[in-house]
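Workshop exercise sheet. Pairs work together: one partner reads the sequence aloud, the other fills in the structure field after running the prediction. Swap roles for the next sheet.
Pair: D.N. / O.F.
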Amino acid sequence: MKKILELPESTIARILLVGVALIFLLFTGLIGPPLHAYISYQAQEGDLLFQSLPMNPVVQTTEGASQSPYSHCGIVVKKNNKWFVLEAIGPVKETPLSDWVAQGREYHFDAFRLHDQHAKHIPDFIAAAYTYEGHPYDIRYRLDDEKIYCSEIIYKAFLTASGIELGSKTKLGDMNWQPYEYTIRQLEGGQLPLERQMITPVSITLDTKVFQIE
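Structure field:
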């Protein structure tokens, strides 16, 4: 503090002015949208975050077939006093929370939290989720353990931790697959696996064990 006070008054004034300007721009959303969204969210371990990824044929198929705005999700974890999201996007990995927010369309995300009666499972839930760290991403959305996708981790880890399902399985054939048949066949080498069961991100958000954080 002594060194700051020894600065010329004009320099101190400029520093204060820049600081005030940055705070104003941040909270009005004129700069740093990822950071603006990030600081308004009060994270807790075990929170479930959902977002829409930048559009491509697979994202469009995921959102369109499940008829929801969500194409990706992850689990909030704390490590070395910093917040991360454990996610399957490429290999299963930890992503800093601010980076995770920034990768979504228009930086938007929705946060869900387990109700109190289920929160007791969070430590085991997170531990089970970490067993998939490094697993490759499953772009075909199968429920085997060779490869894995985002909502599959949440479903399997919570089932391991609690013995209870979080989210519900849905057959591809029961989803809005028809407009996306071309992309599905491209991913499947020409096949159309209508009997394949999947765990969609939106099915987790609709589960009564979680509630959305406003």
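Discussion prompt: Residues 1-5, 15-31 have pLDDT under 50 and may be disordered. What would you look at next?
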